[in-house]
Amino acid sequence: MNDHQFKAHPWHGINAGSNAPHVVTCFIEIVPTDTVKYEVDKETGYLSIDRPQKYSNIIPALYGFIPQTYSADLVAELTNNELGRTDIEGDNDPVDICVLTEKDITHGDIIVKARPIGGFRLLDHNKADDKLIAVLENDAIYGAYKDISDVPPMVIDRLKHYFTTYKDLPGDKSPRCILTGTYDVKTAHEVIRRSIKDYDNKYRSDK
């Protein structure tokens, strides 16, 4: 039967792009107007409701992941090296990415082309959970940004606040996500390269 009759799985059926890591394909799960956190169901590839947002904070950008990437040993090695540790592991998920754009995009479940410019080094329950920052390819405003240092500080602060609070639950005594640093476009490219290799090691090692 012709494979093209069926919708591609957004993680495994779409590649990261022929120009990765400089320009990547991103699958967008949630947008700033969403009051529910959607997440791709790993088995079916359909969007599922992860949880309603407990507080009023919203994602200030498009948010999703880079297909055919995986956070495992090679991605975690970067965090361990940076923090002088050896105990951090990857979170076993595709690498997350935020895409800045001046356009109002009203729903997720779409793919976009974006140019990574940096990222946040985040720990989620002591696992590497990098959040890459990118700009929509050819965006009228953000498209001129080359590095995370070009982004206005208020935008960075909003992103940091979201990612350090979005998984907290009422009654938590300590934050679940810890932001340990911000990195530039060169490191973002290295995270992508390593995550593609981690994906190949996990899903293509028998080929």
From TrEMBL:
Swiss-Prot/TrEMBL keywords: Hydrolase, Magnesium, Metal-binding
GO molecular function: inorganic diphosphate phosphatase activity; magnesium ion binding
GO CC terms: cytoplasm
Co-factor requirement: Mg(2+)
InterPro entries according to UniProt: Pyrophosphatase, Pyrophosphatase_sf
UniProt-listed GO biological process terms: phosphate-containing compound metabolic process
Repressor found in the keyword field: no
PANTHER family, per database record: INORGANIC PYROPHOSPHATASE
Protein's UniProt name: inorganic diphosphatase
